[in-house]
Amino acid sequence: MSRIKSLPVRWATALVFAACAQVGTASGQTAAHLESSAAVLEHEPPAVRRLMQQAKALESAADTNDNAWQVAVRYCEASRLGSIEGQYQLGMLYAFGKGVPESRALAAALFSQAASQGHAKAGQMLDNVQMTSVELPACVSTAELPEKAPLASMAGLPFGLASGSTPSIDRFLLSLPSNKRWIIPLATTLSAWYSLDPKLVLSVIAVESNFEHGALSPKAAMGLMQLIPGTAQRFNVRNAYNATQNLRGGMAYLRWLLSYYRGNIVYALAAYNAGEGRVDRYKGVPPFPETRAYVRRVIGLYGGVSHGFDEDLTAAPPWLQALGR
Known about the structure:
By secondary structure, the chain is mainly alpha-helical. Helices cover 54% and strands 0% of the residues. It has helices at residues 16-26, 37-42, 46-60, 65-80, 84-96, 104-115, 120-129, 138-141, 169-174, 183-193, 198-209, 229-234, 243-260, 265-274, 276-282, 289-302, 318-322.
């Protein structure tokens, strides 16, 4: 099977800034670990403090493309004046394409600069973007305005409803209550970083946790993608109730499974639920009612059984190689 490195899976991130706000809320981190933004601002020069306060006020106002760009203008100037918090906040805007065009490279450079000066959250985001870059936005180096992001619909979720009576992830997402919708753009953006179809990831989240970031199963599976402690440790997830860390760990595991099973979603999902050891033992989906129901539910939402994969990530199991798949 040919190697497929990435998929054309970009969706408009209409609610993305809500996700940025909620990541911190869902993280469970305390002031003992990270300085609050207010505490950071206390140490900034008056000119920087004014810019940061203006940006925060604009963020609290109506959520429009122009407002988001005005926020970026102020974070650019604050960054140019040496504000570490400004660099982190501007990196968040570039990471999620809010007000400025989405750019992992620019976000990575900003997170790297802030993290090197001791900004803990910037270091965490640098881990999440999984990229190294030294290319800072031009507005950080010279007194010029940042480029504006393309206009995006802010009125709702731009998903196309599937036709017919077949259950679909599109319908499911449109039925989500507003207090859960912030997860959608966050998961969508991270999916692209892991070369995963966001609809597959969102289907897994729907079945695993119903978009409850604090979910805990009787088997100690935690968070949005229900990571058991061993899987969390395997993929370096320190706090499984932190939405971004949980999604990062779950996606890393799903990407690995898709490589291991050569793009076969059915086998990958069965392994996500029951472990790859059991799938290998039975050379397919194990005869466990829970696992088989789980696979049917996710496939029913997603509507596909194959996915692109990176064949260099890991080797396929011998039994699958013998089948010529």
